[in-house]
Amino acid sequence: MIPLSSHRRRAGAAVALLAAALAFTGCTSAVQTATTSSASSAPVQGGTLAIAASADAQPQFVMANRAGNWSWRRLVFESLVVLDSQQQPQPLLATTWQYDADRTQLTLTLRDDVKFSSGRPFTADDVVFSLEQAKDPKNASQLGVVAKNISSAAAKDAHTVVLQLAAPSDSMFDLLDLIPMVDKDTWAGIADGKQVIGTGPFLWSSWTPGASITLKKNPEYRDPKRPYLDEVDVSIITDSTAVTSALKSGTDQLAIGMAQSDVSLLKSSKDYQLLNAGGVFYPLGVDVTMAPFDKLEVRQALSLAIDRDRIAQQVFGGDATATNLWWTPGSPGYPADLSKSAAYDPKKAASLLDTAGAKGTEITITYANIPTMKSLFEIVQNNLTEAGFTVHANALDTAAYDKAQVAGQLGQAFLLLHGMVGFSSATIIDAMPSIKTGNPSQFAAPEYDTLKAAVRGADDSSRAEALKKLSTYMLDQSFSDILTVAPQYHVASAQLHGVSVVSLGSVVATDAYLSKK
Amino acid sequence: MGSYLLRRIPSILLVLLLTSVIAFALPRLASGDPATTAAGSDASPAAVAAIRTQMGLDQPLPLQYLDWIGGVLTGDLGQSFSAHRSVAELIGTRLESTFELAAVAAVLMIAIGVLLGIAGARVHGGFWRAALDAVNAVLLAAPPFLTGLVLILAFGIAWPVLPASGEVSLSENFEIGIQYLLLPAVALALPQAAAISRLLESSMKATAREDFVDLAKAKGVPGGRIVRKHILRNSFGPALVTIGLRLGELLAGAIVVEAIFGRHGLGTLAITSVQNRDYLVIQALILGAVFIAVIMQLLTEIGVAFLDPRVRLGGAA
Amino acid sequence: MTAQATTASADRAPRRRTGNPLLRRYARAFRSPRGVIGASIIAVLVLLSLLAPVLFPGGFDQQTRDALLAPSLQHFFGTDEVGRDIFVRTIYGARVDLSLVFVAVPIAAVLGTLLGLVGILGNAAGAAVQRGLDVIVGFPSLILGISVTLVLGAGWTALVVALAIYSTPAFGRLARATLLTQQNRDYVQAARMLGTSKASIMTAHILPHTLDTAVTQAVVAVVSSIFLESSLSIVGLGIQPPQPSLGALLNSGARYMQQLPSYVLGPAAVLLILVLGFSLLADALNRAGAGR
Question: Which residue, among C68, C69, C81, C152, would best test binding to A if mutated, counting the most A CBs under 10 Å from its CB?
Fold first, then answer.
């Protein structure tokens, strides 16, 4: 139609493209070519570790176990003991500990060479202060109940603490492992993150909320040869696919909060290592005061209707335990023979439902709108529909979900998640929201309390028996059904050495270093 | 033009006032509030109530609104409930990131869109027509997050020539910074470019049929000059309106693109603020976004009047 | 040339009082190759969607243990992470998306265009309406969508409302731009001087021009709406599971892109075909409308 000097135009475009390409090759590349590192290497001094984390820091909640704090909490703070892989306490800030005869008094001896990064020496008074903070509901510690069991804490001298317990508790070392030793001078203002003072190998340098955290090497750390790293930069990336991209493109060397489906793909890769970071319990709970779940048969039907194997396979890539028990698998006293009774029997479930006259009942399942819970819901609603229920979804975003949980208004049925794999059973019965006193299932009974008390105060000789009795009772009552227990992983590139994960997800980088590329 | 701008001020203020009311009310209509988010899901109702009083959220709503508006007018945007920092500080740290992404994406969007639009207006049949249609449809149908993921896989992981995560601001280091911006900006720009090209093409074809173009052709004006001086200039009016609208879409798309590429901009701030029900941050972001949109609308109107003398600036505001 | 067309139709008008000149022009569109292809594509997809419960009586939630299978004759796009046929879910997803856009976009188009043309009554009225639309335009679309969904509760209704609100201003602005451009043209001034009523100026002169850009905008609106729905799915506020939508499928598929590319490519291809169909149809309508 319109005759145009197209040749000139096309030539011009080509020249422009060529020029751009030439200009590009001239610049420095922003991408560092990543190569697989050699196998063994001596620790390398210096370097910056880049971490991609999916949740933002919450410095005012270091007394609790919060995902946003995993990347930095044990770099800046330390606790009295560390639980090893057998869940036995190892010394950290405390060197020795001793119970008295009836296990109501615990005496701890502390290291004498520890200083806060402000310069002030760490003493027994700081232990007393920190344990007080653990009791305070404002600090939202999951182990607040365990801390409240300490009726008094006193500093016998600068490096000895005596704890008086209201009753013998099998949870003390879970507490002493989780609770960080904080600085009483700066604790009150910790919420805005301007000053976060601990005894750890790194200093809290800066925090841009929702974006990044910078930690620098603590030159005054008690071990002059540690840490190896100069700096740790945490980038907060809320989208789990973006966390994966950050790790795989080499931008970051450690990823916290990767989607389970992506983690399972990297399991056999030489370029990445999976760090066990505890795990999560996924229960399906029901309100025993609301129809149809006030009928025991209907609750039992629920448990039989669910295909736990398929959940373990399809939601967690096969890397999950299809169990129905609330305790850390393999923990002392774990009733292994009971956990095999998690049967999948849709026909029996359907007939139980029929007999109870509840076939076709409409139920609403409330859950938090995150990818894992959504996948869980998809399978659960499919199973329950097959058994004869009519299922409706009530997906709430995190804020609405928290509100519902606090108000105890989760509805008839709800899918929860508790990152508590690693806690002892005695701790779990008081810390796990699904089963503790005041649970959203509204389940309470004197027998339940008695059985729980037995576990709470158990020792090595009585633990297995008490736990078995409690588990049998809870399985019969079926007010909370564990669908699966899935391990949780942080993923590191093969270049990163010497890093470990403790306290249900917190990273320890005291001995960490990056091998040369 | 000066008097035109002056006369527009009351209507701009009206828009901002309306927006402030909606921005204030909307987040509060949703279930959950900053107190529950701060207290956590294991808190007791009493603890949550205590935190709520501390945050001033139990005051009557009109009072809270007036407090906020008063603050805004004096330059105090308030304090973030979840980050314990001033809202202005939070926004300030993220502003540059989003601005750079939007700027680079806008340039790409306009360049690609105009080129494709002109090409579309020229090409009339056969293979190239079909090819252009296909390209246009593919670009139009490519959601930014999908394009972004494909680009990350292709150029960030499989053949790593460009960074797939993080950011370096252009003011810090232009050479490196632009490499961080390239993939996300392309992902953002493509669908908008396709939309612009379609509108420009149809607008150009309509203008090409007008009398004055026939006249120019009859006078023997060379083709290139016809396109530049007559067609392009006169068909750019609706295209400019579209560009203005597309810029708004760009900012909206930036929210998701920022999330995928691990950039820390206003988009990710908006999402986390909604998730945390951080009222004051949400309110400030909405007000700011509308304000920018209003300014862009103003610039668009001035631009349209400049290009098409038949549209008188003052006559129809 | 448009002036000639006007006088020509004015000549014809007394003979054809019942035939709507607008409809006649647009009918021509369906005879051009683009119109035919575009309309057929849309027709096929609409038909498939409507017939989905008949063609795939098992529904969209038939979960099995065969997760993430590669595409085969049994499963054209393969199976998803809980063993459902992705092709079946894509068709059901298209069904949901088409139901959303066929309700939301026309509402937005009519509402928006009417609001945009309010300016014919007077400049102050037109300007006031534009200010109202400005508020919506400036609102970040995802925040708008999230807010509406949080208030109304996630689901189909909330999405229709959110998409309609979101798409309206664009139609309003374009209608107003056309109004302003055409209002001052010679032939409109001439018509006014002849004493033609404002209503007939609207229908005979201004509306056809508005429709041209509105039709093109409708295609863009359809696509933007599907994108907005998919963004809302990313933050979990789109169509609720187990119901699929194209956006939700794209979202889930993207997470499995390396393991099973067909999971995302299948729905993306269907979306592409959908967009192509609407684009071709819009082009055909545009050309017919412009009188060539």
Answer: C81
Q: Which domains does chain C possess? A: 46-60+69-289 (1.10.3720.10)
Contact (Cβ atoms closer than 8 angstroms) between residue C139 and residue B290: yes
Interface list for C 72-101 with A (CB within 8 A): 81-83
Q: Which pLDDT tens digit goes with each residue over B145-178?
A: 888 888 888 888 888 888 888 888 888 888 888 9
Separation CA A372–CA A417 (nearest Å): 10
**pLDDT under 70: residue ranges of chain B:** 1, 42, 308-317
C256 shares contact with chain A (CB less than 8 Å): yes
Domain boundary among A160, A188, A216: A188
**Residue of C134, C184, C280 with shortest CB distance to B310:** C184
* Angle of helix B144-151 versus helix C246-255 axis, rounded to 10: 20
pLDDT at C228: 84
* pTM reported for the whole predicted model: 0.83
How far CA A422 is from CA of A40, A90, A181, A464, in Å, comes to 30, 15, 20, 17
Instruction: Clarify whether residues A346 and A327 are in a common domain.
Output: yes
**Size of the A and B interface in Cβ pairs below 8 Å:** 170
Residues from chain C that touch A371, judged by Cβ atoms under 8 A, are 255
Q: Which residue of B has its CA nearest to A145?
A: B42
Helix (H, G, I), strand (E, B) or coil at B268: helix
Q: Which residues of B touch A61 (CB under 8 A)?
A: 40
Residue C4: both structure tokens together = 């000639």
A303 and A430 share one domain: yes
Q: Quick check: C63 and A382 CB within 8 A?
A: yes
In 3D space, the residue among A321, A331, A323 whose CA is nearest the CA of residue A171 turns out to be A331
Q: Say which CATH number the domain at A118 has.
A: 3.90.76.10
Q: Give the residue numbers spanning the domain of A341.
A: 279-487
Euclidean distance between CA atoms A409 and A401, whole angstroms: 9
Nearest residue in B to A211, CA atom: B264
Task: Indicate whether A4 belongs to any domain.
Answer: no
Whether A104 and A204 map to the same domain: the answer is: no
Could you tell me the CATH number of the domain that includes residue A515? Answer: 3.40.190.10
Interchain proximity A30–B162, CB inside 8 Å: yes
Q: Using the beta-carbon criterion (under 8 Å), do A210 and B33 form an inter-chain contact? A: no
Side chain identity at residue B15, one-letter code: V
Q: At what angle do helices C246-255 and C261-289 cross, to 10 degrees?
A: 140
- Same domain membership, residue A224 and residue A159: no
- Chains near A with 3+ CB pairs less than 8 A apart are B, C
Q: Which of B33, B37, B42, B82 is the best mutation test for A, with the most CBs of A within 10 A?
A: B42
Domain boundary among A188, A217, A251: A188
Band of residue A159 on the pLDDT scale cut at 50, 70, 90: very high
Task: Judge if A295 and A382 occupy the same domain.
Answer: yes
pLDDT in tens, A33-66: 433 444 456 888 999 999 999 999 999 889 988 8
| Helix, strand or coil, per DSSP, at residue B254 | helix
Q: Do C138 and B310 touch (CB under 8 A)?
A: no
Q: Does B87 touch chain C (CB under 8 A)?
A: no
**A261, A377, A395 ranked by CB distance to C255: nearest:** A261
Among C30, C210, C54, CA closest to C117: C210
- Give A448's pLDDT tier (boundaries 50, 70, 90): very high
Domain count, chain A: 3
Do A119 and A263 fall within a single domain?
Answer: no
